[in-house]
Amino acid sequence: MSTITDPRDRLIVALDVATVSEAESLVERIGDAATFYKIGYRLAYAGGLALVPRLAAAGLKVFLDLKLHDIGNTVEEGVRALVDLGPTFLTVHAYPQTMRAAVRGRGAGDLRILAVTVLTSYDEADAREAGYALPVSELVAQRSRQAAEAGIDGIVCSAVEAASVRSVIGPERLIVTPGIRPAGSALGDQKRVMTPGAARRAGIDHVVVGRPITGAADPAAVARAIVAEMA
Ligand SMILES: O=C(O)c1cc(=O)[nH]c(=O)n1[C@@H]1O[C@H](COP(=O)(O)O)[C@@H](O)[C@H]1O
To answer: What keywords were assigned to this record (predicted)?
Structure first.
């Protein structure tokens, strides 16, 4: 678990928008309500990698969510190529070879590698359809154990699994949870969900929230309410 001094750092806002200029205007509208942003596929493929050093230079933290997964050499060199952009977090899928390669590529700097265990849009039937025999909770626990063995810095899972993941990874590694919905928000494609307050009580370090903030009439107000719920 991290020592978070600014409670705003607990919230990571997913900048899942189409263009860099939309992302920049959203960051401006959110203002001092958030300190941590996530850049995922959509924005990264639209030139969003260039935003990483810009946000970092503005004193904001950046979670680069590229969910890397490939042969070890490609993952290791890919991670190495991203270090200088200055993200705080980078995701890979929680496969042992991939995780070990990402840790090698990270080197000794400040970048923290997070391993995505089982996507929060998956329920038991989705996991079975993808060929996994284990129940989701056991698959998350197994991957978390392998992540810790590989030297990974944190786990991405649902807050539903936070307590069991904590018992597997120990107190130091981070738990980062998407699939977060304030009470009454639309679930969209998320299936393993929790409210921000319940997630915090379950022992998470950071929550990731996209559409409930990006689609709101007043994104800053929603971000503030989420931070307050986790205080
Ligand atoms: O790695 C992630 O960030 C991630 C992992 C996961 O299991 N589930 C998940 O939703 N995410 C990301 O978290 C964000 C959630 O967005 P919303 O569902 O709009 O709040 C999206 O950017 C997803 O890509």
So the answer is: Decarboxylase, Lyase, Pyrimidine biosynthesis
Going from the C-alpha of 87 to that of each of 15, 70, 106, the distances in angstroms are 14, 20, 11
Domain harbouring 67, CATH code = 3.20.20.70
Residue 176 covered by a domain: yes
In a domain, 2, yes or no: no
Count of domains for the chain: 1
The pLDDT value given to residue 1 = 63
CB contact at 8 A, 51 and 20: yes
Q: Residue 211: count other Cβ atoms within 10 Å of its Cβ.
A: 16
* Residue 49 assigned as binding residue: no
**Is any ligand 1 atom within 6 A of the Cβ of residue 42?**
no
The pTM score is: 0.98
CA angle 184/89/118 to nearest 5° reads 55
Cα–Cα distance, 48 to 57 (Å, whole number):
15
Instruction: Determine the distance separating the centroid of ligand 1 and the alpha carbon of 117, expressed in angstroms.
Output: 12
**Section 171-199 average pLDDT:** 97
The letter for the amino acid at 137 is: S
> How many other β-carbons are positioned within 10 Å of the β-carbon of residue 137?
17
Mean pLDDT across the stretch 190-201? 98
From CA 229, how far away is CA 227, in angstroms rounded?
5
Which residues sit opposite 13 in a β-bridge? 37, 209
Residue 180 pairs in a beta bridge with 194
Q: Is 202 in the pocket of ligand 1 (CB under 6 A)?
A: no
End-to-end CA distance of the chain: 16
The string of pLDDT tens digits covering residues 161-180 is: 999 999 999 999 999 999 99
